[in-house]
């Protein structure tokens, strides 16, 4: 009986059928990037805000003040009298009644200067110049509550982490094309609820669930594409990530055109419902069907692929080699039970963690500094395109392992040099730091491909999801590591990043080269890799 790769070669390894499926599933990269980076625009800091004094509403109504006049009478005296207070997080500790003079509201306090008037911390009485334009003004995530904005992104990453375990497992047990549309539906529904969340608690709960389902869409579509093409075309996984970058570049345009955070949230969530049509347009992975002992269904799909590609399967292709391993549900023990699987799993988990932590750390460090937020964010996304192009130019000529290791080491060296460059040469410091970002972006994109190619079909979706969950852990840790270490010494985070990157680069050189090899079907196939 022929093997699956032999049948795939006969049916076409990257014909019209695979190109159509590839293009359809690439759209998932765009919507996933929207979810991944949306907090930058959902959580924009309000232009200006101030704390309203109790009773000021009634006083404003009686006196006919505009908001600007109310601010002049009740906040500016506080700023003039107490230079350390801006009136944003503190207010005068008083309750004004309607007997206060409209022309001189502080006259009631006699000879007290504004600097001697009692102060109180503001809790829930903020007035925003642009109310409801972001979740910051919607849920009062300012002053002592500002940490909650970081919490919202951490919760999303926790959702990614949970999705990697639960939906990665489900896709290996119940099928890729069943979990994919369910995940898309979950992202869409949760996104709508997030947009109309009545309070911050509800917002966080469904933001978490959106992360769970979002990870399911991204990882499942990536695995489907990798499993239906031949070994020479598996770099399509890198191209999918170029669509992620494309989404990063599109997002600021959406945010610029849509004035409210609810509108942005709906604009990035609703497209997921279109992906439900893929259930009838994208077939189940025939590789997965073979691992579940469903050879007849797999062969039927292969005949359909051949027909769509304008080819014809030979009559003797009446059966495909069935995986002889006993069908079982994947577990973490399967990833560490044998020597080579254990080594690959531990190295890949570290590579995911280090790449994500350094990538997000460098993005936050270079930041979206001053200027036009929308334009700067677009440019920061465009920086990632050369990384994908470099991968496409090298990965089929040199292989996976060397570009993976060298890009990580280059990123580490660039971080180390940047830390000791003088501040009076900003262009050089920025250039070297950008080189570090380019290197770690390459490593971040190659780890997807290598992870997929090193795991057997029986464990592929679960294994990739589990290892990539360390990426989410790195994303949670990155802001805390960056800001806490920067408080000690501004360049200290770069030293840590450089160590992590160099260690990552050396470790991945211990992985086998996967260029041109057939995807392993069983754990035994993985153990035979050298």
From TrEMBL:
GO terms for biological process: dopamine transport; histamine transport; monoatomic ion transport; norepinephrine transport; serotonin transport. InterPro entries: MFS_dom, MFS_sugar_transport-like, MFS_trans_sf, Orgcat_transp/SVOP, Sugar_transporter_CS. Keywords: Cell membrane, Glycoprotein, Ion transport, Membrane, Mitochondrion, Nucleus, Transmembrane, Transmembrane helix, Transport. The keyword Transmembrane helix applies. The keyword S-adenosyl-L-methionine does not apply. Signal peptide: none annotated. GO terms for cellular component: apical plasma membrane; basolateral plasma membrane; mitochondrial membrane; nuclear outer membrane. Residues 110-516 form the Major facilitator superfamily (MFS) profile domain. SUPFAM superfamilies: MFS general substrate transporter. The chain crosses the membrane at residues 21-42, 154-171, 178-198, 204-225, 237-258, 264-282, 347-368, 374-395, 402-421, 427-450, 462-482, 488-511. Its main location: membrane. It catalyses: L-histidyl-L-proline diketopiperazine(in) = L-histidyl-L-proline diketopiperazine(out); spermidine(in) = spermidine(out); agmatine(out) = agmatine(in); histamine(out) = histamine(in). GO terms for molecular function: monoamine transmembrane transporter activity; neurotransmitter transmembrane transporter activity; quaternary ammonium group transmembrane transporter activity. It is found in: Apical cell membrane; Basolateral cell membrane; Mitochondrion membrane; Nucleus outer membrane. It is a multi-pass membrane protein. It holds the Pfam family Sugar_tr. PANTHER family: SOLUTE CARRIER FAMILY 22 MEMBER. Belongs to the major facilitator (TC 2.A.1) superfamily. Organic cation transporter (TC 2.A.1.19) family. This is Solute carrier family 22 member 3. It comes from Ceuthmochares aereus.
